[in-house]
């Protein structure tokens, strides 16, 4: 089987249109939710990923592999790397389009081992939009922006309404989360 996967995006798409209030290039994004396993400061063994807007279509994220992230001794667990890319891709969609969206599909190619202590530099870009679907892809390079590629990922995120979170998640926590974001002028468009 060829290593090169099928066409991407897998259907005709429109170019993604960044939200007019998307943060400008160079903005450090910080955590989006303190309990998020990907970026939350309150999750001790979480990934503590930090992301920055690189352009109106791209976000760069950094993830340093810790000892809690191992699969084989001294090496990152593959599923955990997939999680890091879910975060980096989700942050790209969420922050550039400013609409709640959830991962529907996530593909990962593991190209090189990722040792504990190394930092993945993940560059993610919006590839296209079709109705509620946003296609996004990323490359993760070892220890430098121009380091060797270790992981590639592609994802499909589907825009959802706020009821997705209130119905299926913790409605009280969602309400508090929205209050915090609104107070910071960071509310989301919630009507896809
Ligand atoms: C006020 C609160 C706001 C909060 C906002 C926070 C933003 C934060 C910003 C930034 C940081 C973010 C960082 C986080 C990153 C991590 C994100 C995650 O890990 S999310 C958790 C894991 N994912 C799930 O739990 C989804 C579970 N799945 C579902 O809920 C549904 O399946 C859902 C919503 C994905 C789709 O269900 P349907 O009923 O709404 O819609 P249907 O019609 O089934 O799909 C829509 C289109 O998508 C295609 N589709 C759906 N799933 C597909 C798949 N697996 N593969 C291919 N296509 C798929 C369908 O074929 C359809 O396409 P056609 O429009 O007809 O062409």
UniProtKB/TrEMBL annotation:
Top class in the EC scheme: hydrolase
Using the UniProt record, give the first listed, main subcellular location. membrane
Pfam families from the entry? 4HBT (PF03061)
What topology does it adopt in the membrane? Peripheral membrane protein
Which reactions are catalysed by this chain?
(5Z,8Z,11Z,14Z)-eicosatetraenoyl-CoA + H2O = (5Z,8Z,11Z,14Z)-eicosatetraenoate + CoA + H(+); decanoyl-CoA + H2O = decanoate + CoA + H(+); dodecanoyl-CoA + H2O = dodecanoate + CoA + H(+); tetradecanoyl-CoA + H2O = tetradecanoate + CoA + H(+)
Superkingdom of origin: Bacteria
Task: Write out the entry's keywords from A to Z.
Answer: Apoptosis, Cell membrane, Cell projection, Cytoplasm, Fatty acid metabolism, Hydrolase, Lipid metabolism, Membrane, Transit peptide
Q: Where does the Thioesterase domain start and stop, copy by copy?
A: 74-141
Enzyme Commission number, as recorded: 3.1.2.2
Segment Disordered: which positions?
1-33
| Keyword Cell membrane carried by entry | yes
Q: Where in the cell is it found?
A: Cell projection, Ruffle membrane; Cytoplasm; Membrane
Q: Which GO terms describe its molecular function?
A: hydrolase activity
In terms of InterPro entries, this protein maps to:
HotDog_dom_sf (IPR029069), THEM4/THEM5_acyl-CoA_thioest (IPR052365), Thioestr_dom (IPR006683)
CDD domains xref list: PaaI_thioesterase (cd03443)
Q: Which PANTHER family match?
A: ACYL-COENZYME A THIOESTERASE THEM4
Q: Which family does it belong to?
A: Belongs to the THEM4/THEM5 thioesterase family.
Output this protein's name. Answer: Acyl-coenzyme A thioesterase THEM4
Q: Which organism is it from?
A: Prauserella oleivorans
Q: What is the lineage of its organism?
A: Bacteria, Bacillati, Actinomycetota, Actinomycetes, Pseudonocardiales
């Amino acid at each position: 089987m060829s290593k090169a996967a099928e066409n991407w995006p897998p259907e005709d798409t429109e170019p993604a249109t960044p939200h007019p209030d998307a943060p400008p290039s160079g903005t450090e994004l910080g955590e989006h939710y303190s309990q998020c396993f990907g970026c939350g400061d309150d999750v001790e063994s979480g990934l503590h990923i930090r992301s920055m807007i690189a352009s109106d279509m791209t976000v760069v994220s950094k993830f340093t592999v810790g000892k809690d992230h191992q699969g084989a001794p001294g090496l990152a667990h593959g599923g955990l790397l997939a999680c890091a890319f879910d975060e980096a891709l989700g942050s790209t969609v969420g922050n550039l389009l400013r609409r709640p969206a959830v991962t529907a599909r996530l593909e990962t190619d593991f190209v090189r081992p990722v040792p504990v202590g190394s930092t993945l530099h993940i560059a993610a870009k919006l590839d296209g939009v079709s109705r509620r679907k946003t296609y996004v892809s990323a490359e993760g390079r070892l220890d430098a922006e121009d380091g060797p590629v270790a992981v590639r990922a592609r994802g499909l995120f589907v825009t959802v309404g706020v009821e997705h979170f209130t119905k299926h998640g913790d409605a009280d926590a969602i309400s508090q989360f929205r209050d915090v974001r609104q107070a910071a002028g960071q509310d989301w468009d919630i009507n896809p």
